[in-house]
Amino acid sequence: MLFSDAFAQNPEEAEGYFLFPIHPGRQNFLSGSMGEIRPNHFHGGIDIKTDQVTGLPVYAAADGYISKIEVSSYGYGYMLYLTHPNGLTTTYGHLESFAPAIAQYVLEMQYAKQAFDVKLTPAKDQFVFKRGDIIAKSGNTGGSAGPHLHFEVRDAKNNLQNPLKYGFTEIQDNVAPEVVSVALKTMSIESRINQLFGRQVFQAIKTGSNAFILKDTIRANGLLGLEFNAFDRYTGAWNKNGVQQVDVLIGGKPHYTHLIDNVPFDYQRMVSWHVNYEVLKLTGKDFQKCYIDDGNTLPLYNTGPHKGKLKINPGATYPVTMQFQDSYHNTSTLQFVIQGEKPIVNHTFAATGKKKQISYEVAEAILKISAADTGSTPKNINLFIRNKRYDLIPSYTVQSTAVYLYDLRGGLPDSMVFNGSARKFNFRQAIPNNTDYSYADNHLALQFYPFTLFDTLYLRSNYENGVWTLNDVTTPLFQPLKVTIKPEVPVTDKTTAGAVWLGWGKSRAFINGVWKDDQFTFTTRNLGKYTIMNDTKPPIVRLLSKSAALVRFKVGDDLSGLASYRAEINGQFLLLKYEHKAALLYSEKLDKSVPLKGDLTLWVKDAVGHETIFRTKI
């Protein structure tokens, strides 16, 4: 192994230092483990099941003081940060309520700030707890998909540590990870996998309790990227969790290791570059890379000379062993063989004629063109770059389909001609990462910042029928991109108009921004399709109940979403708590002895400024 002892205990990591925060002393179960792959981040702690209910006591894991309190309808919901004498901080998320003294302090601050969402940093000696004190009740607030406690351990640099390395006996695990499949991906223009360029998936076959193999020898050439899809389970639980550590050995020698621990909090979104993001978005399957792509600066890896990529030479044999380990050292092994094989141009033709057609895709910096033809000899493709013609010869053929490979670093092609038919590309520019970079044309302007891109982006853009297309949704961004779009038809009512990201299926997301003349500027973390839409409807407010103790509303908005709300009783601020999952606003009085009585007014605004005013008498 490249890490001599991946789970070595530091003095402050001694077993027994932390108390398990839910039902300490009895077996517990997890719905989420450290480092699991989420849509745009690593899971930063463990999710502790709470018997599908809320309101369980949450215990302080160790002596400490409350260093931060957060309240939001999104993210972690109600959350506490408890800082300990050893410099570590434990966090407790999705809480239903805080301990009484904390709850009163938060309520007073919410009334002082006249806001539900607050981030508070109380004095160091204001809320001090001993190990085992009840600090909160478990809940389902924020972005939680069900009742549980989200529990983290962070160091002084805000790195997320694996809580399970602290030896919690409440979580039992004698089950080794399950390997589902591995994938190999060509990483250079001369690379081949079973004589093909691209990505191929191979299903793992279980041969023993913790042993897996691939059925056949893989024949390959050139630089390859290895990926895997695997999961882990805990004793007595059926839900799938993440794998903690992966080692790759070639011929018995260490080649690559990653250990998902000590993840910098601000780098969690880099999970989009740790996994095959395109495959995750298209299939929902999280294939983790066993190589480090350019632009990945996570401190989780230990690799050889090619950053984990496999360099396969013709005639050589490469026995591959992959070891998959969970937090309790249960280990599974996958073994297979890669045989180096020289690429060949395989002129094979289908027995029956194929319809003439041509398609292309972009894989990293390689343009792959596939052209089906009925001729007995594959034809060249005429590639045009700045009005200069280049003849692109087939790299190989498969059943009357010729495959052509072109390295985009040689210049971005404008169009191609095949068999008398012309086709235009929509390549615009090669955008480097790690720098400020601007691009503009007649329809849009883009501002890239040093951390917008993970790697060089071969920008493709198009404007048609009021829709702007920027590459596609399977290309991840690390930090935001500034976009200015220029509609051909001027928007008449700019006060209610904004950009709408047309995501997966029928999903859409409204993005507010700034109009200047007839151009709209906004920031985004998503590529794909955008359009301009008007939000013409004000928010909806419906009274659910009212009494001297409590008032409840159902709220919603058609497109742009709620931006703000405020309630007053007899002209005085009344705190309304917001649960976005239930689209619910409900009141909490500062002085519980004073009944709600008199004139109540609720103002609700959406993101474009539409306001709904609701009045009632209690």
Q: Report the biggest beta sheet as strand number plus sense, adding barrel if it closes.
A: 10 strands, antiparallel
- N-to-C CA distance: 69 Å
Helix/strand-derived class? mainly beta
Q: Report helical residue fraction.
A: under 10%
User: What global shape is seen?
Assistant: flat
**Number of DSSP E strands:** 51
Query: Uncertain regions: pLDDT < 50 for 5+ in a row?
Result: 1-9
Q: What's the number of structural domains?
A: 5
Number of DSSP helical runs: 3
Instruction: Describe the oligomeric state of these chains in a short phrase.
Output: single chain
Can you give a write-up of this model?
By secondary structure, the protein is mainly beta. The chain folds into five domains: 116 residues, Glucose Permease (Domain IIA); 163 residues, no CATH class; 69 residues; 106 residues, Chondroitinase Ac, Chain A, domain 3 (Sandwich), CATH 2.60.220; 78 residues, Sandwich (Immunoglobulin-like). It is built from three helices and 51 strands. The strands form eight sheets. Strands 1, 2, 4, 5, 6, 8, 9, 11, 12 and 20 form a ten-stranded antiparallel β-sheet that branches. The protein is flat, with a radius of gyration of 28 Å. It starts with 29 loop residues before the first strand and ends with a strand. The N terminus is likely disordered. It holds the Pfam family Peptidase_M23.
